[in-house]
Design brief:
Length: about 400
């Protein structure tokens, strides 16, 4: 009898304990994180316009435009192992924050804590959004057609006296946050003592990027990068007769590139006409430096790219990161606001200290003399023999501009 009572009492306790575990079992950590992430993202989306713009570098309207452009991409509609995918707007929100910030506050851990997701999710969302932005590259960045080039020529001729010019070329270093863990890491070490990519770009008068050439390490000279790009390799596909792009003195003149005059070794000073040409052309060519400056001020991750280069896959990810930022720059160009509106007070002070009071118009750039150091004697001799007719033409332009200035 006692045994039967003891058994009944044990069964009752077991059933009570099981029911208690069922009713009060621990919640799934993944579900808790999902709800936390959703609420945090919605809270960021509900922020006022000023706070949102300083945090994510875009206005609410621009953010909606970006989401509308990439939301149809199949990457956001593929299976996720049976689990519902996070809203596209939340993924874009996280990636815009990551693109727009650099330093210790933009590590995987810090971003994961801010948005309530794991570090692996930060990487996954970043790769997904960057890939979607890359699919829009042809829509927002293209080489101008013959008709558009003719329009650019007319605008630059009428407004600036640059007859035949269709754009401006320059190179800029995209610094890496950490040194590459590769056998060729030394190739990425540039003259500023940083590891970087050398990004070549052509910009039109509206500060839109029209051509990019990316892949050379930071130690490569701008002229070397230009010789390898499609503009130099197949000029007939990109230029009509008498069309050219304007570059600084680090480039060598050819049939479709006019560079500023520079002093050769042993030459004390430039001729007055050459000085006049350089002064006039430099004031117009600054558009490309202005474009690079706006690009890096808005998407500050480009100041220290948080990609560790260990393999070709990492290099491809870095290239997608850079090109995606350029796509965003062009896509938002028509809706561009004063950079002071999407910079924090600390970032604005740093930009003024680095670039000057008019910080939106300049990007850190070496002098023409320093650029010329990287060219060897053979290239200097080539410049004397190549493009003499073009040199004669720009001499005429310089004389014309001097007459207009003195009139």
């Amino acid at each position: 009898m006692k045994r039967k009572q003891m058994r009944l009492r044990t069964d009752l306790c077991s059933s009570t304990l099981d029911s208690h575990r069922y009713l009060h079992r621990q919640r799934d950590e993944a579900q808790i994180r999902l709800r936390n992430s959703f609420s945090r993202c919605e809270e960021y989306l509900a922020a006022n316009e000023d706070d949102f713009r300083r945090g994510f570098r875009v206005s609410h309207a621009q953010f909606s435009f970006i989401v509308e452009q990439i939301e149809p991409d199949e990457l956001f509609h593929q299976g996720n192992m049976g689990r519902p995918m996070f809203p596209v707007r939340h993924q874009v929100l996280l990636v815009l924050w990551r693109l727009g910030h650099s330093g210790t506050g933009a590590t995987l851990f810090q971003i994961g804590q801010r948005f309530g997701v794991g570090e692996g999710t930060v990487v996954l969302w970043t790769d997904r959004v960057l890939s979607a932005l890359m699919s829009l590259e042809r829509r927002f960045m293209w080489w101008p057609s013959p008709g558009e080039r003719a329009q650019l020529r007319r605008e630059l001729t009428n407004e600036h006296g640059l007859a035949g010019c269709i754009g401006f070329i320059d190179g800029s270093h995209i610094n890496l946050a950490v040194a590459p863990a590769r056998h060729d890491a030394a190739d990425f070490f540039n003259r500023h003592h940083r590891h970087s990519f050398n990004l070549l770009a052509v910009v039109d008068r509206h500060l839109r990027f029209r051509f990019l050439h990316l892949g050379f390490p930071g130690s490569a000279h701008d002229q070397r990068v230009y010789r390898a790009c499609a503009l130099a390799q197949s000029p007939d596909s990109h230029f009509s007769t008498d069309e050219f792009i304007l570059g600084d003195s680090g480039y060598t003149c050819d049939a479709h590139l006019v560079s500023l005059f520079r002093r050769f070794r042993g030459q004390e000073s430039l001729d007055p006409d050459q000085v006049c040409f350089n002064r006039h052309a430099s004031s117009r060519r600054v558009a490309v430096e202005h474009a690079f400056g706006v690009l890096k001020l808005r998407w500050q991750s480009l100041r220290a790219l948080p990609v560790s280069l260990r393999s070709e896959v990492d290099e491809a990810r870095a290239a997608c990161w850079i090109r995606a930022c350029v796509v965003l720059h062009n896509a938002l160009r028509d809706q561009q606001a004063d950079p002071g509106l999407w910079l924090t007070a600390i970032e604005r002070e740093e930009a003024q200290r680095q670039y000057g009071e008019d910080f939106t118009r300049w990007e850190e750039h070496v002098s023409d003399d320093e650029d010329a150091v990287g060219l060897n004697e053979v290239e200097e001799e080539d410049e004397r023999s190549v493009g003499q007719q073009l040199r004669s033409r720009v001499q005429i332009y310089a004389s014309m501009w001097r007459q207009q200035r003195d009139a």
